[in-house]
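Exercise 7. Given the encoded structure of a 219-residue chain, write a plausible sequence.
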């Protein structure tokens, strides 16, 4: 995948052609600046709020106060909305999970055509039960990092065809874990991706998955 300027990611009014190629971005404009120098702090505050909400039991009065504050914040953000192609979320490569708050936060250790290695921390928001991460959150991490491994392998965008997660042991919260994903084999546009999630030497989960490399213009 290659970066591009904001102008390159805009629809081309002169040619009538869209660099989005009818589906995913043909070129992804990765950045360390969009959203401003404190965007990472903003994302962290949102994550902290989600963590607190997972365990909070507010009084009616506190709930009313927080709702009023959130309504104000949402109204402020309504004036700042952009489309998915120009949002900093998911493109801020200097931030955990590239600033995407829909993903459990992970930080890349290495990422190339041979595979991806990242550290991840599941927080209180990701609780499934009994101090362990929800299996769906684990699957979400695998889907994201498996997709990255397949995309780097082919140099383009891939879609998930299937993702089978084998849960081998409990995945703890608030612990630095290691996730690895790699293309085990390729058959044309089909990329069979494997992955593991470890807490130290203990295997928490692994995957068998299939990703499909998209043709130009595919959504």
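Solution.
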């Amino acid at each position: 995948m290659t970066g591009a300027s904001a102008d390159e990611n805009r629809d081309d009014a002169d040619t009538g052609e869209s660099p989005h190629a009818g589906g995913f971005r043909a070129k992804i404009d990765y950045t360390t600046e969009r959203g401003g120098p404190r965007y990472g702090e903003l994302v962290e505050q949102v994550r902290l709020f989600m963590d607190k909400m997972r365990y909070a039991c507010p009084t009616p009065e506190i709930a009313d106060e927080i709702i009023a504050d959130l309504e104000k914040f949402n109204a402020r953000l309504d004036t700042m909305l952009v489309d998915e192609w120009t949002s900093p979320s998911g493109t801020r490569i200097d931030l955990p999970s590239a600033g995407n708050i829909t993903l459990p936060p992970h930080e890349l250790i290495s990422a190339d055509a041979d595979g991806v290695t990242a550290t991840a921390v599941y927080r209180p928001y990701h609780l499934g039960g009994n101090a362990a991460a929800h299996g769906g959150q684990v699957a979400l991490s695998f889907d994201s990092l498996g997709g990255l491994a397949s995309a780097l392998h082919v140099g383009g965008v891939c879609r998930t065809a299937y993702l089978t997660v084998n849960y081998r042991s409990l995945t703890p919260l608030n612990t630095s874990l290691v996730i690895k994903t790699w293309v085990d084999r390729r058959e044309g546009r089909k990329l069979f991706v494997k992955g593991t999630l470890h807490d130290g030497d203990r295997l928490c989960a692994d995957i068998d998955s299939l990703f499909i490399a998209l043709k130009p213009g595919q959504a």
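Remark. The CA atoms of residues 106 and 120 lie 4 Å apart. Students should compare their own answers with the one above.
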